Amino acid sequence: MDLTVILFILLGLGGPLAFPVFSWAIGRWYQGTLLNALNEQEKQQNAAFGGHLIGSTSSKMTTLSAQSSVLLHTSIVVGPSMGQMFFMWFKSIFGGRLHSYDVIIEYGRREVTRRLQEQATHLGCSSIVNLRIETSTISFAKNSKSNTSSMEFLAFATGIRN
Question: How many CB atoms lie under 10 A from the CB of residue 41?
Fold first, then answer.
């Protein structure tokens, strides 16, 4: 076979996958940098917050004394890259765990919790109780055949001031 024929065959087979693979790689790299930055921010914030109580409970808490309380809330929207969505679609055909969505969910929950801690610190709260995180999937298409989506994380809690 001629080299140009081999090149055309490779481009014909690999060309359609080039964009999803490139997008997936860039998306994974970017998510990795976001998670590393989040790790550093959490370390700094935990030191500043003093490791005080952050709790989510439905039972009565009698160990905390409060001078006042305040509602804390924050939300973010995050989503996978187009390449990650392509590979998640492909993997959903065969079944199994979708790692890209796991990374998005982990990042979203940790980020809204960090933002709540930051808000509590600015408002003079010494602890956070009744933490709730709501997660919803957002599709941008009007029909069920959406090719883009993201996840919204809404967190709210009660900040206790002593």
Answer: 16
